[in-house]
Amino acid sequence: MSDNFLEFRNVSKSYGGVHALEDVSFSVPAGHVRALLGENGAGKSTLIRVLAGTIGADRGTIALDGVERAFATPLEALEAGVVTIYQEFNLVPQLTVAENIFLGWLPTTAGWIDRGSIRARASEILKRIGATFSPDARVGDLNVAGQQMVEIAKALSRDVKVLLMDEPTAALNDAEIEALFRIIRQLRADGVSILYVSHRMAEIFAIADSVTVLKDGRHVGTEPISEVTTESLVRMMIGRTLGEFYPPKATDFGAPVLEIGGLSVGKALQVEKLVLRKGEVLGIAGLEGQGQRELVQAISGARSFEADTFLIEGAPVRIRSIRDAIAAGIGYIPDDRKRDGLALIRTSAENLAIGSLARRLRFGAVVSGSAERRFVDDLVAALRVKLSGPDQRAGDLSGGNQQKLVFGKVLGAKPKILVMAEPTRGVDVGAKREIYEIIRELTRSGVGVVLLSGELPEILGMSDRVLVMANGRIVAEMTDPEMSEEAIMTAATAEAPEAGVMDDAA
Amino acid sequence: MTAALRNIRLRDVVGAPLFLLVVLLLIGVAIEPAITGERAIRNILTTATPLILAGIAQSLVILVGGIDLSIGAIISVANVVAAALMTAYPDMTVAIVFGVLALGAGIGLVNGVLCAFSGASPFIITLAMGIALQGVALQIMYQPGGTVASGFRQIARANWGALPVTTVIVVALALLLAVAIRRTSWGVSLIAIGGNEASARLSGISVKRQTVLLYVISGFLAACAGLFLASRISSGDPLVGEPVTLDSITVAVLGGSSFLGGSISVVGTTVAAIVLAMINTVLNLKDVSPFYQWMLKGAILILALSLDLLRRRKG
Amino acid sequence: MALVSPAASTSAPMKMLRFFITPSGAVWIAIAILLAVAALASDNFVSGDHLLNVARHAAALCIATVGQVFVIMTGGLDLSNGAVITLVSVVASQLLGGSDQYLVPVVLLCLAMGAAVGLFNGLIVAKLGIPPLIGTLGTFGILKGAAYVLTGGAPKGGIPESIRYVGNGTIAGFPISTLCALAFVAFGAFLLSRTIFGRQLVFLGANPSAARLSGVPVARIIILAYVFSGVSAAFAGLLAVGYTGVGSLSLGEGYNLDSITAAVIGGTALTGGSGSVVGGAAGVFFLALLTSFLRFLGLSYSGQLIVQGAILAAAVILQARVFRR
Question: C149 — contact with chain B (CB < 8 Å)?
């Protein structure tokens, strides 16, 4: 057994000029659980993908037991004993549990599956991880926790040398988490190197031997678990001086532009009261998947919800669809601009114009070409979108300029409230700053902004007020003097899912 | 064993739109009780045979998220090629049969390679192939004609009691295929491709190779259907396969295939083909024009699809 | 602020040249090549008279193709338009009985039938989520049967002189049907680029999810696209029956595949969100020219089918591999 069984050597990867990983080097011994920590966008998922063979690194290598390996395909990684459990499931709902576990290398006799053998082997693995369902159950009939167990069983069925786990407990309850930890400890005893990605501090302290922190694609440090505390880890994760990066905040706000009472989305979101004032940036923070997404989607009409009161500028409105929300003056900037924001094969001008076509009509029905040209030129100039011309395809622009198009599209409808999710994801530093300035210009003109971001510096640098969410509820509200990374993290993790709570959610 | 039995659900055996099939069957019997007679049953099963072959071919392709709109034209081409060659070389029936089967598989290979590697949609690729092959069939034989060897005619005429021999063989092979899909690693990989392509690929299943293989099988089965029709009508007809394309989709969907991918029921498709043949027979016995049959089949297809989608949305 | 990079200052001739290597521009090159080959093969093929005749022949298909382009732009397909053409031809023939007495109400009824078929198609596609190819294939079967039911197998009645004049007559040497088709192409192009409906349609074809989040009423627009295709087909049916002069149960045969082929050749992507009505019209002209030339060369109907299938496959593969990078 070697002290650096799994080694990353100067691994770098960038997407369109944005560094996802920069010169990352660290190693994991055999028989060791390493927690991998970092904010969203710190490079964790890129690192996992490089190791699992789904993407190639630009530079640098990975060594297994001293031998340099480059996995061109996920299958090569699997065959070398590098097994990944992803956040999103890779299961076939139409097949049974046993078939899923052994998919791709089903034992056969003359082509016929040895059903007895896969059932027995699957049963054994399922028993080991404490799963109670039958190996003959159809995966599509299992709940999310059950499917997660199948993913784990699938990984364990291989001759695993390195196990990558990306938030494996997201869907598990306490007993299941305990069972999972038992398996992890057992694998560790068997000499497996384990990379464990999680946001939950309690889990990390419970299971990890050491921890590696990534930030902005760089390796910040690797420490034994006994040498760190929650506070020191948080500092390693965020530890940047906010400096002059963010434009100055607002000093006074107008009347409330949005007041919501008794808001709920099933069991995923329960918010008693939410008020947004004119000219205010309201940050929404918390660990991943605590109801933030549901909150912004509900406000923007993208998801159906219940609310006792929903007032815009003091007047009650009914929002049942995106169109209702837009008509009521709410603009929405979704987090995945390629999927939900832009038509990449259409021109920049068409993308900018789509959100407000009805504002530029002649004879009540015809889209005015000249008005549209003026509208597009004005927006391009105001947002400083770098284009070869209005006819350039949106898909040919950089991430930052694409994001500006999404802003322009929404601003064309003159919203009073702007709801944004991860507005600077996948955007380079220069464009980031420009987007922050655009947001501040908007608030100066009286627009109220709801900002959901997984990047704490962004929340701290931009928000006039922060709501921290956990378990679908608002657990803390902070304004400037008391607002800090530690305070937010503490509030978010203090209320992190405990025993039993996840049962309700699942 | 009981666990295994419990795990085989009705849906897997006959396909969910079973309900619609039973209704259609009952209506058929009510309208024309004569179809329960031995001759009528034999006639229905003979009519159903090419449709079973085409329906299974279609459901295999649909299973992995594809479609084959050239099935009918392949049937026609196989049919006229067989009839034309058998007319010219009456002594070489066996060689011709193998040649035609190879031709069908070859056309399927072209379909499969184009669908898997060109990046264009299988809808249009096989549509274009269908148009071109219809041209080929008409080029070979513009009018129905030709004649086949008398021994070859027996393929569609030999019976075991009320049951046509070929139909029995085809149904037996269908049952074998139904089991193979659930019980071989090949079948399981097909379901995996249709159910979650990313997962199949991550597991090392060669999606493209399997896709090509399924189109080859589809072409081969279509050629079988074309040969069977040549035997049945004792001659060639360049338009004989034309209605089969739509019918093959109808029976696949009625049988339990879903355009969402990952679902197949070979048994259900077989039953659906027989029910559709029964409807045709009833309509023929009642002397109803083929145009009504178009109308009825169009309505059944939309109804079956709607039921399938509604059921899946709720479930 | 250098908002405009050098690429935008490209000269106008360069822009023109670049158009011909786009999906909807390449069809013009194909037409030019075909004309050149035909001119070499024969002295009188590429004459004004013959080309006008080809254009007259293609008018009905051109109108149906405009509707088809709309539907394909949403990411769908309409296989029922040929059956609408057949249905309209027999309904007009039977109801009018060769007289102009009820001309206006019958023409309106025909257009309304097209709209109703389109509405049905749109509802099953947009609301039930049935794959358009299969759903409209089902509609095709139903309509084919309906046309038979209405006529009892042999269409009766007749087409009055007025409709035949539109289908067959000329104004100053120009076929009226061709003028109708050109006007309809212009109307379609205008709808697509200059109205909210058209702009939303194009956008949702390119990205339905982004369209929904931008406030586009996705289902409504898709339904309207099928309605438009149905009305186009009805209009095409009136022109076609005016050209032939008799209602026929086989009149619309092949229109569905031909209109799809023309749209694809004209650069409309089957994945939706990109294409051109004018390109589709050029695709129709190309197909008509090709058919006429192949016939001139003595190629039979079956040979034409083979060539058409090959061209459709080539066009769609070219789109997938060359233009969609």
Answer: yes
pLDDT of residue B17: 58
Is it the case that residue B9 has pLDDT exceeding 60?
no
User: Which letter does DSSP use for residue A337 in this model?
Assistant: I
Sign of CA dihedral A426, A431, A432, A438: negative
Contact A197, A36 (CB under 8 A): yes
Interface test with A, best of C5, C22, C213, C325 (most A CBs within 10 A): C213
Interface test with B, best of A94, A106, A139 (most B CBs within 10 A): A94
pTM of the predicted model as reported, rounded to 2 decimal places: 0.83
Nearest to C215 among A326, A366, A367 (CB): A326
Answer whether C149 sits within 8 Å of B310, measured CB to CB: no
Which chain B residues have a beta carbon less than 8 Å from that of C302? 134-139, 142
Question: What digits encode the pLDDT tens for the residues B92-145?
Answer: 999 999 999 999 999 999 999 999 998 888 988 999 999 999 999 999 999 999
What digits encode the pLDDT tens for the residues A1-41? 466 789 999 999 987 667 789 899 999 999 999 999 887 66
Domain around B204:
43-308
Residue C206 in contact with partner chain A when CB distance is under 8 A = yes
CB contact under 8 A, C5 and A357: no
Q: Which one has a higher pLDDT value, B222 or C312?
A: B222
Architecture, CATH, for domain A6-238: 3-Layer(aba) Sandwich (3.40)
For B295, the closest chain C residue by CA position comes to: C142
C309–B135 C-beta distance less than 8 A: yes
Whether the CA torsion C238, C242, C245, C250 is positive or negative: it is: negative
Phi, psi of A305 (to 5 degrees): -150, 170
Tens of pLDDT, residues A41-77: 678 888 988 998 888 889 999 999 888 888 888 888 8
Q: How far is CA A164 from CA A21, A36, A209, B161, C304, in A?
A: 18, 10, 15, 63, 58
What is the reported pLDDT for A2? 60
User: Has residue B10 been placed in a domain?
Assistant: no
Q: Which of A230, A151, A181, A208 is nearest to A28 (CA)?
A: A208
Number of domains within chain B: 1
CB contacts, 8 Å: A409 with chain C: 214
Distance from CA of C160 to the nearest CA of A (A): 36
pLDDT of residue A1: 46
- Position of tokens 């040497």? C173
User: Taken in order B295, B297, B301, B303, is the CA torsion positive or negative?
Assistant: positive
What is the C-alpha to C-alpha distance for residues B15 and B12, in angstroms, rounded to an integer? Answer: 6
- In contact, A122 and A153? CB cutoff 8 Å: yes
Interface probe with B: pick from C72, C77, C84, C148, most Cβ of B within 10 Å: C148
Q: How far is CA A210 from CA A118, A165, A250, B286, C69, in A?
A: 36, 15, 42, 81, 60
So what CATH class is A256-505?
A: alpha beta
- What are the CA-CA distances from residue B268 to residues A85, A108, B251, B283, C131 (Å)? 36, 27, 8, 22, 21
When divided into structural domains, chain C yields a total of: 1
pLDDT band at A244 (very low <50, low <70, confident <90, very high): low
- Domain assignment present for B162: yes
CATH assignment at residue B109: 1.10.3470
Q: Which two tokens stand for residue A145?
A: 């926790």
User: In the structure, what pLDDT confidence band is assigned to residue A239 with cuts at 50, 70 and 90?
Assistant: low
| Contact check, Cβ <8 Å, C5/A367 | no
Does C9 have pLDDT greater than 70?
Answer: no
Nearest to B204 among A91, A99, A104 (CB): A104
C-facing residues of B in 112-141 (CB < 8 A) are 114, 118-121, 123-125, 127-139
- Closest C-chain CA to B143: C302
**Domain around C91:** 48-323
